[in-house]
């Protein structure tokens, strides 16, 4: 695959310009670009500026509102429901996390369900907002239906990520940010470009048979829940994904399960939507609601050190602490730049031409 | 395997008698028995009265305090930390969940970290306490180290379950209660008794090689995190298990990772414990902190109906909604009785003889 490297500031400026051309306010454009750039910096390329054209196409279809009136529609001292007014999830979710953090400051924790939103980028961005305040961050979202429950051949759930982030002392924040499917769609796309097969257990074909054909999903198949099959616990992956769907959408009043609106603009949402838009669920808990922050951080560091030193199977590959590779990528890419494959650059330059802004 | 069936009331009376002989108060004995019986009724035999002799042995070693002074040691309006005073997790966790529910009534949600506890039975018992109050229940716990992180061959984590439970309308509560390992130890024990092999991906041997030997764990191997191997997402199972460990133990002040005290009395806890006992983390969120309860329940029922009707691969096996098989077992076993294998009955009768109470 051919790719070019771009400086962070170049991509950031470009992305902000595109969002402004969509009609976003300066503040929203800067924030939305920051969420996408964070994904690229952290090496989660599938959720960075490569998605920008997807948001543009949804906006062109009238499914994204560039000037949303995001508001709290229901609340208690530690909970709230927010209506995203069909705004970019990239700005709706940070708004909601600020509400969660504020509630957490006041009463120890804050939990916010969000309806009528769109794709919110990487869950980790939002969870890390809490970590900066010495809080534990939690972020989940439902997503376009691509995953089948155990025993089914119908796409009923998104890759519905779960993210937990914890403050630490001298080590990078501990952050687990994971799709609840065995593999994410991005990994299939890589195999498709390379023309290789995918491992057994990632997808099944349209009849529900296991397949290693990397085009199996496109051809009517489905991604499999974490665990891959019943014998290896796919009912657990299904249970987790379902939990994310319920917290994000049934609780907030968004559309759930197979009704979750697809991210791709060429597919319309199903008729008879049971709710409004996509849903998220975010939380923040003050560490000092449980024990003193410094004490917690010392023990987090001790936890991380102990796990780094868990006896490896092979001396060349030690245990990886969740969150470390992403921070390492962030440090490196700030210096060396962000690689974009040529197909993505072409896509972005088409948008630039349409909006009359400078090409990348 | 030979087994006998017992009426619920017989096992309940027996279990209460044993806890009272240990020195538990009437109230604690009744509660602890209720937690164990709930597991047996719901078909989770590994966590029911089959564990009773394990608790007795821990008490004999002085590791369980039958008369604990369970108390809140730190709190905010929506959070608390509880010291279980080395009591039975079976009574410490319900105490803590009551605190979470009370906080949830007051400010919308309640989150309680618990240190200095012991095995708390099935997570589902505690989460369902919240559901009875039209709240969402959350329960996790750390446990004896038997699971290895991805890339390691050292036992660093417990099977660390995650449980979420949601109220519903006409259907049974939606409840996902799952170990974060691919398979639980109980499944290995069944294979050992039958003399069969276990599937690839459940365990590895002491050198970190994949094995199908059902005795592999006993012989120095380890259970694998949900996902089984890196290619199938075992880093996600590791991330979830680690999250449970951190919430349960690093946040509360309990012992974490490989230091988590083993359930088996013949193994002493490691020296230089970084905290006190096992830890749990429980939560309750009022549904009406987000949207009206009746509205939520209608949508939960709609969710369940849609998923029950997801196109099955084979018409004989429809999608299973988490929580349904357990409720079906509960209804059946209340009538037909609870099966215990003879080895368990023998074990329980030895305890009966020692305590001078009637045999089963």
UniProtKB/TrEMBL annotation, chains A, B:
Matching entries from SUPFAM superfamilies are given as:
L-sulfolactate dehydrogenase-like
Give positions of region: Disordered. 200-221
Q: Which UniProt keywords apply?
A: Oxidoreductase
**Matching Pfam families:** Ldh_2
Top-level taxon: Bacteria
Q: Does the keyword Metal-binding apply?
A: no
Q: Please report which protein family the annotation says this sequence is part of.
A: Belongs to the LDH2/MDH2 oxidoreductase family.
- Record protein name field: Ldh family oxidoreductase
Give the source species: Pseudopedobacter beijingensis
What does UniProt list as this organism's lineage? Answer: Bacteria, Pseudomonadati, Bacteroidota, Sphingobacteriia, Sphingobacteriales
């Amino acid at each position: 695959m051919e790719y070019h490297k771009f400086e962070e500031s170049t991509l950031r400026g470009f992305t902000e310009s595109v969002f402004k051309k969509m009609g976003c306010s300066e503040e929203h454009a800067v924030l939305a670009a920051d969420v996408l750039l964070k994904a690229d910096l952290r090496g989660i390329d599938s959720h960075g500026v490569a998605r920008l054209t997807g948001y543009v196409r949804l906006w062109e279809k009238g499914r994204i509102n560039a000037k949303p009136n995001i508001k709290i529609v229901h609340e208690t001292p530690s909970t709230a429901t927010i209506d995203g007014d069909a705004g970019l999830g990239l700005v709706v979710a940070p708004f909601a996390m600020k509400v969660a953090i504020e509630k957490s400051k006041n009463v120890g924790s804050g939990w916010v369900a969000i309806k009528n939103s769109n794709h919110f980028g990487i869950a980790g961005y939002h969870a890390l907002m809490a970590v900066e305040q010495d809080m534990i961050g939690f972020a989940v979202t439902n997503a376009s239906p691509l995953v089948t429950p155990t025993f089914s051949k119908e796409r009923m759930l998104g890759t519905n990520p779960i993210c937990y982030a914890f403050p630490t002392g001298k080590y990078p924040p501990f952050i687990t940010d994971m799709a609840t499917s065995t593999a994410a769609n991005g990994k299939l796309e890589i195999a498709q470009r390379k023309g290789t097969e995918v491992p057994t257990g990632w997808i099944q074909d349209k009849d529900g048979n296991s397949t290693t054909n990397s085009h199996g999903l496109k051809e009517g198949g489905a991604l499999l829940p974490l665990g891959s099959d019943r014998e290896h616990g796919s009912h657990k992956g299904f249970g987790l994904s379902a939990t994310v769907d319920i917290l994000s959408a049934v609780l907030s009043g968004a559309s759930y399960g197979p009704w979750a609106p697809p991210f791709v603009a060429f597919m319309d949402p199903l008729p008879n939507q049971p709710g409004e838009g996509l849903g998220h669920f975010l939380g923040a808990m003050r560490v000092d609601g449980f024990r003193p922050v410094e004490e917690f951080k010392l023990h987090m560091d001790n936890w991380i050190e102990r796990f780094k030193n868990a006896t490896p199977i092979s001396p060349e590959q030690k245990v990886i602490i969740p969150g470390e590779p992403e921070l390492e990528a962030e440090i490196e890419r700030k210096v060396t730049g962000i690689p974009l494959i040529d197909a993505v650059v072409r896509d972005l330059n088409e948008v630039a031409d349409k909006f009359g802004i400078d090409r990348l």
